[in-house]
């Protein structure tokens, strides 16, 4: 009998790039990054948000460096983060005046761990090449990597017009979207080639070609990945708000990541008013974890609930357990090896509850409507205890704590 095999392509080989303490590409785990939405000139607000994003798990944080005051604030932001013990590398997002800012504010150029340059927003006409060169020369001088980040909303208009023209004159013109895909890739690859000519090593170049359509993004990255071995940053730009942004980003990135494409990701979610900016970090981690590419925090499987369970109790328990393990993970990560791989299940009734619970490291099956008010708990597939009464949530958390202490080896304490 033939058996079903789980087969996904291996990770694409890419040249590794060191960004501060973090390695991107070259076989390193896929890196999660995010971007602040504070005014970089506001040193305190930006420091606080960078620290929040880093605490949520962002391994790199990008800040816009758009004005002289913002460039002046960058070394202060770095120093404040260092004082807080937050080592997360900062990436500077540069646009039309980036060449001036890295020249006039060397403290900013030094404090950043990577520069993001958009070839479509460096300048126009002759100035474009000159200003791009200045940014790359700064990267060489300060030994920093760059991301050459092409974005379809700001694609170099001269390049696109030239390629559209050439296409129109060719005997067999292709449709406009094919020309645009080609223009995005050409912009990234030509800019990378130019950066190398100026003296930047391949191990200091990361590429991205962001688009907002799921199929567009997949098409472009497949082609880009096949044509070069630069490390690639993935992200669906302008993904949107709420579930739309999460679903679109997940749909696009999952396909590429499971094809072995992508070395670092960012999820460009628009926060709801008053929403948490760190949600984009959680979504990025969850994409990597649910696709089996990395583990960050124990995941809680929960049933959707149905008419068999009239109480919302199990939904609240699932939510509180997920929140609890995410919070506890900050401590567990320092103390125990491998807790991020733990799985938990919170199920609403006896129909699927015990079965699903048995597949998790720890599972609880709550009573459905009309069932006896007891909640069996399964540990490593075996029924361990049956909880009842008013403190099922508290007792379940205690079981989780004890399991972590018992199951995962203590990390060696660094004597220094
Ligand atoms: S486990 Fe029970 S409550 Fe949950 S969806 Fe299945 S039948 Fe409904």
UniProtKB/TrEMBL annotation:
<dbReference type="Pfam" id="PF26540">
    <property type="entry name" value="GcpE_C"/>
</dbReference>
<keyword id="KW-0479">Metal-binding</keyword>
<feature type="domain" description="IspG C-terminal">
    <location>
        <begin position="300"/>
        <end position="401"/>
    </location>
</feature>
<feature type="binding site">
    <location>
        <position position="303"/>
    </location>
    <ligand>
        <name>[4Fe-4S] cluster</name>
    </ligand>
</feature>
<dbReference type="InterPro" id="IPR058578">
    <property type="entry name" value="IspG_TIM"/>
</dbReference>
<dbReference type="InterPro" id="IPR045854">
    <property type="entry name" value="NO2/SO3_Rdtase_4Fe4S_sf"/>
</dbReference>
<feature type="binding site">
    <location>
        <position position="306"/>
    </location>
    <ligand>
        <name>[4Fe-4S] cluster</name>
    </ligand>
</feature>
<dbReference type="Pfam" id="PF04551">
    <property type="entry name" value="GcpE"/>
</dbReference>
<dbReference type="InterPro" id="IPR058579">
    <property type="entry name" value="IspG_C"/>
</dbReference>
<protein>
    <recommendedName>
        <fullName>4-hydroxy-3-methylbut-2-en-1-yl diphosphate synthase (flavodoxin)</fullName>
        <ecNumber>1.17.7.3</ecNumber>
    </recommendedName>
</protein>
<dbReference type="InterPro" id="IPR011005">
    <property type="entry name" value="Dihydropteroate_synth-like_sf"/>
</dbReference>
<keyword id="KW-0560">Oxidoreductase</keyword>
<comment type="similarity">
    <text>Belongs to the IspG family.</text>
</comment>
<feature type="binding site">
    <location>
        <position position="356"/>
    </location>
    <ligand>
        <name>[4Fe-4S] cluster</name>
    </ligand>
</feature>
<dbReference type="GO" id="GO:0005506">
    <property type="term" value="F:iron ion binding"/>
</dbReference>
<dbReference type="InterPro" id="IPR016425">
    <property type="entry name" value="IspG_bac"/>
</dbReference>
<dbReference type="GO" id="GO:0046429">
    <property type="term" value="F:4-hydroxy-3-methylbut-2-en-1-yl diphosphate synthase activity (ferredoxin)"/>
</dbReference>
<keyword id="KW-0408">Iron</keyword>
<dbReference type="GO" id="GO:0141197">
    <property type="term" value="F:4-hydroxy-3-methylbut-2-enyl-diphosphate synthase activity (flavodoxin)"/>
</dbReference>
<feature type="binding site">
    <location>
        <position position="349"/>
    </location>
    <ligand>
        <name>[4Fe-4S] cluster</name>
    </ligand>
</feature>
<keyword id="KW-0411">Iron-sulfur</keyword>
<keyword id="KW-0004">4Fe-4S</keyword>
<dbReference type="GO" id="GO:0019288">
    <property type="term" value="P:isopentenyl diphosphate biosynthetic process, methylerythritol 4-phosphate pathway"/>
</dbReference>
<keyword id="KW-0414">Isoprene biosynthesis</keyword>
<dbReference type="InterPro" id="IPR004588">
    <property type="entry name" value="IspG_bac-typ"/>
</dbReference>
<comment type="function">
    <text>Converts 2C-methyl-D-erythritol 2,4-cyclodiphosphate (ME-2,4cPP) into 1-hydroxy-2-methyl-2-(E)-butenyl 4-diphosphate.</text>
</comment>
<dbReference type="GO" id="GO:0016114">
    <property type="term" value="P:terpenoid biosynthetic process"/>
</dbReference>
<comment type="pathway">
    <text>Isoprenoid biosynthesis; isopentenyl diphosphate biosynthesis via DXP pathway; isopentenyl diphosphate from 1-deoxy-D-xylulose 5-phosphate: step 5/6.</text>
</comment>
<dbReference type="GO" id="GO:0051539">
    <property type="term" value="F:4 iron, 4 sulfur cluster binding"/>
</dbReference>
<feature type="domain" description="IspG TIM-barrel">
    <location>
        <begin position="17"/>
        <end position="284"/>
    </location>
</feature>
């Amino acid at each position: 009998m033939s058996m079903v095999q789980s087969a996904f392509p291996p990770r694409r080989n890419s040249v590794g790039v060191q960004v501060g303490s973090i390695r991107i590409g070259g076989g390193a785990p896929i890196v999660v990054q995010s971007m602040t939405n504070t005014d970089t000139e506001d040193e305190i607000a930006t420091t606080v948000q960078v620290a929040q994003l880093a605490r949520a798990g962002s391994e790199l944080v990008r800040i816009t460096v758009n004005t002289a005051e913002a460039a002046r604030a960058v070394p202060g932001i770095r120093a404040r983060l260092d004082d807080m013990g937050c080592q997360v590398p900062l990436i500077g997002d540069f646009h039309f005046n980036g060449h001036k800012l890295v020249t006039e504010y060397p403290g900013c150029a030094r404090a950043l761990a990577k520069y993001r340059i958009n070839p479509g927003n460096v300048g126009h006409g002759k100035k474009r090449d000159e200003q791009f060169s200045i940014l790359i020369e700064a990267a060489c001088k300060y030994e920093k990597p760059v991301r050459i980040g092409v974005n379809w909303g700001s694609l170099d208009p001269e390049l696109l017009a030239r390629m559209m023209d050439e296409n129109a004159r060719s005997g067999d013109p292709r449709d406009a979207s094919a020309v645009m895909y080609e223009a995005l890739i050409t912009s990234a690859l030509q800019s990378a080639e130019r950066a190398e000519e100026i003296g930047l090593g391949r191990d200091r170049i990361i590429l991205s070609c962001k688009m907002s359509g799921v199929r567009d993004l997949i098409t472009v990255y497949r082609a880009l990945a096949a044509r070069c071995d630069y490390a690639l940053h993935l992200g669906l730009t302008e993904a949107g708000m709420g579930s739309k942004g999460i679903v679109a980003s997940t749909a696009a990135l999952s396909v590429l990541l499971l094809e072995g494409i992508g070395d670092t990701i960012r999820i460009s979610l628009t926060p709801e008013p008053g929403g948490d900016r760190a949600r984009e970090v959680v979504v990025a981690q969850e994409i990597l974890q649910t696709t089996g590419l990395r583990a960050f925090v124990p995941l809680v499987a929960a049933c959707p609930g149905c008419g068999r369970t009239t109480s919302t109790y199990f939904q609240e328990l699932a939510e509180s357990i997920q929140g609890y393990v995410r919070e506890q993970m900050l401590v567990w990560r320092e103390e125990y090896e491998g807790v991020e791989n733990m799985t938990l299940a919170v199920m609403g009734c006896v129909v699927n509850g015990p079965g699903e619970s048995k597949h998790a490291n720890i599972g609880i099956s709550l009573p459905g409507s009309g069932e006896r008010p007891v909640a069996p708990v399964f540990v490593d597939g075996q029924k361990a205890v049956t909880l009842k009464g008013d403190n099922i949530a508290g007792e379940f958390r205690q079981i989780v704590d004890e399991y972590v202490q018992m199951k995962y080896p203590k990390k060696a304490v660094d004597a220094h």
